[in-house]
Amino acid sequence: MFLTYVKLLRVPQWIKNVFLFVPLIFSKHLFHYDYFITTVLGFLAFCLLSSIVYIINDITDIEADQIHPVKKNRPIASGRISVKRSSLITLFLVILNLLLLSLLNWQFAVMSLLYFLINLFYSLSLKHIVLLDIFSIAAGFMLRVGAGGFVINVEISSWLILTTMFISLFLAVMKRRSELELFYSESLNSTRKVLEFYSIGFIDQMATVAAAGVIICYALYTLSPRTVTIFNTENLIYTTPFVVFGIFRYMYLVIADKKGEYTTEIMLTDIPMITNIFLYGIFVIMIVYHIFGL
């Protein structure tokens, strides 16, 4: 039963909220206790908020999920947890989330509210509108980074914001590609109507643009005068190959291995991707904080 509630809350999906730590790391406050604890509280608040959004989405999509080959196994769609009980759990999570928000600044609360509203509108209507569905998913990642900056009151580089925007769009587009593959292969006619307006060719073109945007903006971020001045080094450019590999590996897994509908599945199960992310994080921390003189 415990695992059923873990699935209801989509605990593995919480990994997406690590985006909140991006401003903490790149503002050189990772090893400052107060900043770190504040970001952790923000992370927990977003985890609860994410679960609230997922439960609402599952309740809204219960009929569509019941005829989906994978989503039919979700706790609400399968009937293992009733809609009434799910609603009570949601209310409990809302109370916990409000308690956490009371410990943080109002700017973070505003970002949290925006995240909730965008996801609510996504569940109710935006997911049925071509392109807006993709931008809505991407907005969730951008708001996480923005919230991470606001919660500790640090400025985020414009290039880093653009990088976040493109990587968010990239992940959203690749998610749609996986769904489209399943849509065609399983001949599903009613699980996600918006897929009828997309084609593999169009999705691949958008993915190419988004992937190029990530790589270019990140490279320009590492060499921008503001970045070089703050970190007192140009060595951050040497982390770009990790970003390029991560983008290419993700595309390979989605296109060749038919994965990608669930971002966290790739992040938590693909050894090359896990290794790449780990090495990227190590090199970034070593360079930004001048460990071993880097």
Summarize the structure in words.
The protein has helices at residues 2-9, 21-26, 33-60, 62-66, 75-78, 83-101, 106-124, 132-151, 158-186, 200-223, 225-231, 240-255, 263-269, 271-288. Helix 8 (132-151) packs antiparallel against helix 9. By secondary structure, it is mainly alpha-helical. The chain has 2 domains: 12-156, UbiA prenyltransferase (Tetracycline Repressor, domain 2, Orthogonal Bundle); 157-294. The relative contact order is 0.10. 71% of the residues lie in helices and 0% in strands.
What features would you highlight for this structure?
Tetracycline Repressor, domain 2, globular, mainly alpha, 2 domains, 294 residues
SSE topology sketch:
Elements: H1 2-9, H2 21-26, H3 33-60, H4 62-66, H5 75-78, H6 83-101, H7 106-124, H8 132-151, H9 158-186, H10 200-223, H11 225-231, H12 240-255, H13 263-269, H14 271-288
Q: Give helix % range.
A: over 70%
CATH topology of the largest domain: Tetracycline Repressor, domain 2
Shape: globular
Q: How widely separated are the two ends?
A: 49 Å
Percent strand equals: under 5%
Mean pLDDT, all residues? 89
Total number of distinct structural domains? 2
- For this structure, the quaternary state is single chain
What is the helix/strand order?
HHHHHHHHHHHHHH
CATH H-tier superfamily of the largest domain: UbiA prenyltransferase
Low-confidence stretches: none
CATH architecture of the largest domain: Orthogonal Bundle
